[in-house]
Structures are given as structure tokens and as C-alpha cells.
Write a structure and sequence with these properties.
421 residues, two-stranded parallel sheet, globular, disordered C terminus
Amino acid sequence: MPMEDSARTACVSRTFLRSWRHHPYLILSNRTLGLKQNASGKGDVWAFTTKIDQILKNHSAAGVKTLELDVFECRDLNACYLSDWLQIAITPKIESLTLELPSKYEEEYNFPCSLLFGGNGNLIRHLHLTYCAFRPKVGIGCLRSLTKLHLSHVHISEEDMLQMIDSKAPNLSTFNFTGDNLVQFSLESLQVKNLGMACLKEINFLNYSITKLPYMVPNLETLTLSSYNEMVNTPTIAARFHHLNYLEIYLDAGLFPEYDFLSLGSFLDASPVLETFILSRAMKFDPVLEDFGDASNMRQLPKHKYESLKDVMIYGFCSAKSMVELTCHILDNAISLESITLDTVNDWEDEEDLGRCSVAPARKSGECCYLDSDSILEANKGLMAIQKYIAAKVPSTVQLDVRGPCSRCHSLEPSRYEVKC
């Protein structure tokens, strides 16, 4: 129920008012509070703080089990409010805490770790922090129930040169980490099944992931890797992800044009029970490539049957020879494949699989993402590569979904170049 409707109902129903004050699950943001941004893109800080103050004070007696506090859009919020709100919310009853702050707080706000001690953190299962400093005291036995930890742009060490994260949480099952550089992990729990990692500056992040993670987190079932500056091809290894069934790899603009996509086959070789493979490539560089002839000129990796692989999705598919080689390698070896999606446009708004706006009137934004003329040309080259080298290799039992630029939003007419959808 929207906040405004809840407030109206509470005014006419004491029963609803009492139940609301005892409701232990709170998701507080500009959207849930019914607040809108002004022309400068900022929210009404006074209205935001006043509403949250009132809500949390009304819940101080009953306690809160889940608090999701999203103040990312309130860039002018005074940090003293945060400490007051957390003081109210963090009690022995709290089980899940999410705090999303404006980026400027990364070096300005120290999360009050002391609130988690003395029994207050014993029941916390989910902890999600962004843009703050988080420096718990070593040896304090809090967060014993922790199963899911997400740290993004969080300063942990005083010098900001973090080298290792040592977790003693015995029940930890989900761990997400985003950082500039590689860090070593010591995750005591063998229950870690879901891992997400993003590295912003390292040139060999995928190399590190495939050589280290099979030993550090041997029971992984889902793995999401995001590399923003990859320049080293992925090596072939003997180690295995014995339980991995979902793998997603995102490669951003730092990727150098000669990167060998075929080397990613090493991840498939290392994952004998993998069912879903997703590869996303940012549409920010245009590989300068010419026609590479017929199929006889393409490299082939040693035969390695992928008996469990069912679904493959490649977003930002390009005409790079190694990308075509990787796709053909998958088609040749995934004996249980059911569907393969090749999208030459990496459209971040297409989260609900609606397709381009010209064929999907239900699309929320009404139009597609902006692509410059070079990206549109590259997307069309990708379509040509699919038609020439890949389409004929797809078995009749496999559903092939090919997506290209939108005929309405991604026209190459000069008048469309400067129009952002």
C-alpha cells in the first residue's frame, strides 16, 4: 500500500494505526514515501527526514525486524540523522539491515558498529552496506546468524588498502563485494553458495577468479563476476567449480579490443554442472575487425561436453572473431542446450525481457537506450556475423533468439544521432 494511502487509512482506523506501528518490516526511500525529486534531481530533505523520524519513533517500542533505508538520492542529508535512526532500529530483534547512502558518504560516514554488539547483532541474517566506512572490532562475536553480506564502496581499513577479508560467520551463504583492487578472502563458512564480485581497476580479475575461487569457495552454486578493466585472457585450469549451476560475467569498457572471448570457455570447462551462462559486454568500444573468412579459419578448443548447460545469453554480442568462436564452441559442446539468446545491443532497461520498444509497447520507458552511430554499426555487424557463422549451427531442438537494434530508436539517419531515448 502506498504511504499516502496508509496515512489516510490510519487516520480513520485505530486498528490499522496500531497494526502499522507494530509492522516490523520497513522499506524507506523517496519512492516508498511518495516523495518526488525536484528539477535539480534532489529530493526534499526536510520532508524525507521528517517522515522517517516519525516512522521510526513510532516503531521504537515494538522494534524493527527489517530495515531497508535508501537515502542515496538525499545528497544533502545530515549524517547525524543516520546515527539516530540506526540507534532506534538496531535492537536485539533486527534480522535484516540495508543502508544505501549517497556516494559522498564513502569517506564521511562511519557506520556505528558498536550498535551491533551487546546482543543487537545476534539475529542479523542480512547486512547490506554501500558508501560508508565499516570497521568492526576484531574478535567481537557479533553477527553469528549472518547468512548474506553485501559490501559496496565500503571502507574497511584505515589506510584504504584492504588486502584480506576474514569472515568467521559460520552460516554465511551469500557474499557480494565491489572494490577497486583484488583482495584475498578467508570465508570460514563452507555454506557460501552465492558469490558476487566486481573489480574496477585490476586487469586480470577473471584470471584471479578462475584460479583462486574454486579453492576459496568450493560449494558455490551461483557466481556473478564484473570486470571493468580486463586485459588478461582466462587461463585453462585443472580446478573445478563442482556445484556451480549459474554463471554471469560482465565485461565493461576497459576491455581491450584484442581480448580473447574464446578463453572464457575455461569457465565452462571448469563447471561440469553449469546450467545457465550469461555474458554481458558493455557497448563502449568498436573492435576494428574485417571479415575472417569461412568456418575453417576459426579456432576450436579441445572437445569438452557440457552435459548440463541449458540456457546461454550473450548481451552486447559483437562481430569479434573470438566472440563468434566462443558461441560456436558452446553450440558444438552443449549437448543439452535448450535456448541461446544473442543480443547485439546491451540494453540495461530491458530487465524484464521485453525486447526493443518497436515490438514491445509495454516497455516502461517507452523508448530504447541511446546508442551512438558507431555502436549501431557494430550491432548490425554482429547480426551479420550471427547470420553468416552461427545461425546454421543451431540445432532444431534449440531455441535461437536474436535481437538487434530497434528500427525506431536506433536508426542511422543523421537526425537520430543526437537524440537520446
